[in-house]
Write a structure and sequence with these properties.
With 436 residues, the chain is α/β, with parallel strands linked by helices. Helices cover 39% and strands 13% of the residues. The protein has 12 helices and 15 strands. It has helices spanning 3-23, 56-72, 87-99, 112-123, 141-153, 158-161, 176-185, 208-217, 312-327, 330-353, 383-392, 416-435, and strands at 37-38, 41-42, 44-45, 106-108, 132-136, 162-165, 190-196, 221-225, 244-247, 262-265, 357-359, 372-376, 395-396, 398-400, 404-407. The strands form 4 sheets. A 7-stranded mixed β-sheet has the order 4-10-9-8-7-5-6, sandwiched between helices. A 4-stranded antiparallel β-sheet has the order 11-12-15-14, covered by helices on one side. The protein has a two-stranded antiparallel sheet with strand order 1-2. Helix 3 (87-99) packs across helix 9. The longest helix has 24 residues, at 330-353. It starts with a helix and ends with a helix.
Length: 436
């Protein structure tokens, strides 16, 4: 492509992006977030799949709770309004529609991997005949570690009790039929299917209702790690009849680094006194909790899986972020803009790079969320060096070994013009590296 033609196309892309931004009903929310800067200029922040941005609402909420702590001390636990001892209920009410559940089925507690462990205590009940757990072969390492340790803790061996499903040779993505086939193949021995909602490396969205139905068909329990799904794609955990799920809140939900995690337990399990679980004081009935009895009476719903009181400051950062999601129109509105951003970036990449950049993520809209997994395949160009140059130019993205640059246009604060700027910088860097 001659430089003049490329310049004309870039101008046209920018004009189209500016028009889309002007018509975007969610554009106003960007001003509620604090955009990091490089050399005094706002970054092109495309790494909300790893850590979402701080909002001014969250900053004010934390300051408010610090003031309450200073003014009330221990009385802050019970002084209304805003008594700390029941603040997690507000989080549950805001979180429930994001994951497609009732408020009683959702709670916030601990961190993601801790919640996976606590929930597997209840929903992984191996027997000599049925002891296997099925996971994604390239699941996030914590999932592997948690599942392997749960298997060993119950007296079994991961070499015989851990089943994985991988992409076919030469492919990045897992075929949906291969997941269902593995569930069917191991069905008589399968105790649990523990699957990601969105694959962290490729951004692949899985057919969660079909996986849940297949697991139930063979008599296995099913749980989902929704770290990259909550706040990214529309979910319906209750209707899909999922046994349990867990997720972090610091990615698409913008709860802050290491923020308190979420957990889901389907209502059909709430009244089962025979379901094993690890117990803690905060999982007891709130009506009698402060009587300090030593006989455990479970709190209603998913709250009965709590073991300790939650972090008030972490909840303070999360609540206003969830309120922003609600104010924006919930997950349908966020998903609609995400699809527009994704389609726009698809076209920019296809038009500009002539095969020099390859998408390792799915291309079908139903099989992807916000995240792109980009491989630099231009001859003689070092992808890692391109990533580092992007960072130096003020593009916030991340690198995943061995060769993927992850970028995610997040609907609450990414503009269409940001994507034009990103592609122009990426093109400049790849072209310079190839000719150098």
């Amino acid at each position: 492509m001659v430089p003049e033609q490329r310049s004309d196309e870039a101008r046209s892309d920018r004009e189209r992006a500016l028009a889309l931004d002007a018509a975007d009903p969610l554009a106003r929310f960007r001003d509620r977030f604090v955009i990091p800067q490089t050399n005094g200029v706002d970054e092109i922040y495309l790494v909300g799949n790893s850590l979402g941005l701080l909002s001014s609402d969250a900053r004010e909420a934390v300051a408010h709770e610090l003031d309450r702590w200073g003014q009330l001390g221990v009385r802050g636990h019970f002084d209304e309004p805003g008594a700390w001892w029941q603040s997690h209920l507000e989080v549950s009410a805001l979180m429930a529609p994001i994951v497609g559940a009732s408020a009683a089925e959702v709670t916030t507690m601990n961190s993601l991997t801790t919640n996976l462990h606590l929930l597997m205590v209840s929903f992984y009940e191996p027997t000599p005949e049925r002891h296997k757990i099925l996971i994604d072969d390239h699941a996030f390492p914590s999932d592997h570690f948690a599942v392997e340790s749960q298997i060993r803790q119950r007296g079994f061996d991961p070499s015989t009790s851990l089943v994985t499903v991988a992409p076919r040779p030469g492919a990045h993505l897992i075929e949906h039929d291969d997941i269902l086939a593995a569930i069917e193949e191991h069905g008589d021995e399968l105790a649990l299917v523990m699957w990601p909602g969105v694959q962290y490396y490729t951004g692949q969205v899985f057919d969660l209702p079909a996986i849940a139905a297949a697991a139930r068909h063979v008599g296995a329990q099913v749980g989902f790690d929704l770290a990259h799904a909550a706040g990214n794609i529309e979910l319906a955990l209750h209707d899909w009849d999922v046994d349990f799920a867990a997720w972090c809140t610091y990615k698409y939900l913008n709860g802050g680094p290491g923020s308190i995690a979420g957990a889901f337990v389907h209502e059909r399990h709430h009244g089962n006194p025979n379901l094993p679980r690890f117990l803690g004081w905060w999982g007891t009935k709130p009506e009698t909790r402060f009587e300090m009895a030593t006989t455990f009476e479970s709190a209603a719903g998913a709250s009965g899986w709590q073991v300790s009181c939650g972090s008030i400051l972490s909840q303070a950062t999360l609540i206003p972020q969830l309120q922003i999601v609600e104010e924006a129109g919930g997950m349908p509105a966020l998903r609609a803009k995400a699809e527009s951003l994704v389609a726009f970036l698809d076209r920019l990449l296809d038009d500009r790079f002539d095969g020099r950049i390859r998408q390792a993520n799915p291309r079908g809209m139903a099989e992807r969320g916000c995240q792109f997994a980009l491989e630099v395949v231009a001859p003689g160009v070092d992808g890692r060096a391109v990533f580092e140059a992007l960072e130096a130019r003020g593009v916030a993205c991340d690198w995943r070994y061995p060769n993927v640059i992850r970028v995610a246009p997040v609907p609450l604060y990414t503009r269409f013009v940001d994507l034009v700027d990103f592609v122009e910088i990426l093109d400049e860097l790849v072209t310079a590296a190839a000719s150098g």
